[in-house]
Each structure stands twice: as structure tokens, then as C-alpha cells.
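Problem 12. The chain below contains 260 residues. Write out its predicted structure in C-alpha cell notation.
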Amino acid sequence: MTARVTLHSPALSNVVTIHDFPLAHPTVQPLPDGRVLAVGARARWRQDGPDRNAIIYSADGTALAAETLGDGIEHVFTTGTGHVWVGYFDEGVFGNFGWGRADGREPIGSCGLVRFSPDLKVDWRFPFHEDNPWGAISDCYALNVDADTAWTCYYTSFPIVRVHDGVLAGWRGDGTAANALITDGSRIALYGGYSADRDRLVVGQLSDGQMRSSGEYRVVLPGGEELPGDARVIGRGPDLHILTGTDWYRLDLTDVPAES
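Solution.
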């Protein structure tokens, strides 16, 4: 299969053509020097070695390196330095496809959130329950990476946790599930939820170890139509990006009223 990766900043700036693209359900992210990283969501463990589900391509589409980032990948975000943040859903945490069995290997994503170095080696792992007061990650529902800082909201109790230079800070949530989040560091908005709340946006303030909700909204298209069921919603810094078909919308946190 031939794949084409388009880079926008915000206008189209480059197209990378990749022949014989091998990954299923990929996430693609930019890297320094015009390179791109493609990561498949699944990777099976085998006795002769696991699937390599991460490939770095040059600007002309040449494969430069391949590595295994683990199975059950929900989120992939790169930074300007070439580091890679990966959040895992429950199968990536607890094991599937051969990972976590007695004759297999501990899942790479067993901690729920991992940062990889520019050469795709593990260089930081989210601490387990006994090492942080906000609890272990069972499923990394939401991840936002802004420069070198990562924010996550995760199952089971959905706290908001910030990671900067390997140091954690956290705020208790109100149990609101979120599939994406945006923040300016003190104000925050959580997007998504279960069933009827899939387009919900809850805004609040981070203070005194708690997220204090101040408003709740529904995210719709500019004409007022509901978001399509297959819309892709991604938070980066204070911006919520919404991709629907060939359209790309952006909602800035400053555009959301503080109170509803």
C-alpha cells in the first residue's frame, strides 16, 4: 500500500510518499528535519521478537528506523526535540496479543504512559500506584503534549496529571471521563464522555489540588450540526483540533466562556 503523509503549518508544507506502508491503524507525527513517525496501534508479541510498530521515515519517504512501542496504543505525540509520548488503552496496560502472559513479556505500556527518546528507546515511565497519590493508569483516556509538558486524564478516577521534567503534579477530578483535554496551565477543558456525552466540553480551573468545574457545553460544527460520529478530536496545548472528513477545525480555550 502507498501512503501519503501531508504536513500543514497551517498551509500544506510538504507531502511524504511512503511505498509499501506496512502499519495498520496508524498515527503519524512530525519529527525534526522533515522526518515523520508512523506508529501502528497494535503489536503482537512472538517468541522470535515482537512486531515493530513504529517506523521513522525521511522527508522523501525512506524508512530510517523501526522499533516496537508496544501494543494497545491510544495516543502518540512528538515534541520539537524528537521525543515521543505514547498513551496506552487497557489492552496495552494489562496485556493482549501475547504480551503479559507467563511465556511472554511485560507490556511496554503497563504503566499507561511512556516517553521515548528520539531513537525510540524508553526514557521515562509513568509511576505506578504506590509511587504517586493520583493512582495508576488503567487506560490513558486523554493525553495532551505541549512542548515538553504532558497532561493526562485517565481511568479509573480521572484525575488531571501534569508531567514536566519527569515530575508529577495533579488535581483531583470530579469523575468526568474525557477523551481529550486542553489547558493553558491553570484553566482546563475536558472533551468527551460516554454515550450521550461524547461531544461534551467541561471547563474549569485547576486550584488547590482540585479541578473546579465552572461550565459545560456541547461542541458542534460551525453551522450548529452535531459532530459526526467518526470525528477525530485531539488536544494540543490550549487548542482542540477537530477533524471531520477533509475539514479541520480548531477551538482555542480562550474562545470558551469561563462559565455557562
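Discussion. The chain has two domains: 1-125, 136-260. Students who got a different answer should revisit the alignment rule from Section 12.3.
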